[in-house]
Amino acid sequence: MKEQILDNPGIIAFPPALYTGTLLIGLLLDFVFPIDFLPRSVGLVLGMLAIICAGLFAISAFRAMNSARTAINPSQPTTAIVSDGVFSLSRNPIYLSLTLLYMGITLLFSALWALLLLLPLLVIVQIGVVKREEIYLERKFGDEYLCYKARVRRWV
């Protein structure tokens, strides 16, 4: 039992909660201090495109992780390095999909404040989630993960 508790990357927070919380703050700021930065039609097209891409990345990543029988939730132990499918394009396709979803929503609502908060959010995700996961995976899988890391970019 104690080993299972230690067998995770110790991320700072559940990534979807980080994205959701930041998005809600940005949308609230946009409601209080509205700044339109895109024509409605451009925001709709770009926003929907980003959301569709986010969905495709997420579905592909979930399928690959389920096929490998490893946990999707980063607070649970990883049992395998998934390197096929969308994981051959990005080491973090789920975070990429969350970022695309976030961007899509900000574009749909033309929410400049939310878009501006994306950069600090990505810094937090990089330091508090991705780096911790990488350290964990290097420790747990050694050369297997290092070879994968050398072949595949972090984001895209």
From TrEMBL:
This is Isoprenylcysteine carboxylmethyltransferase family protein. It is a multi-pass membrane protein. It comes from the Bacteria. It is found in: Endomembrane system. Keywords: Membrane, Methyltransferase, Transferase, Transmembrane, Transmembrane helix. Its EC number is 2.1.1.100, 2.1.1.334. Coiled coil: none annotated. Signal peptide: none annotated. GO terms for biological process: methylation. The keyword Transmembrane applies. Its main location: membrane. GO terms for cellular component: endomembrane system. PANTHER family: PROTEIN-S ISOPRENYLCYSTEINE O-METHYLTRANSFERASE, SLR1182 PROTEIN. GO terms for molecular function: protein C-terminal S-isoprenylcysteine carboxyl O-methyltransferase activity. The keyword Signal does not apply. The chain crosses the membrane at residues 12-32, 44-65, 100-130. It is an enzyme of class 2 (transferase).
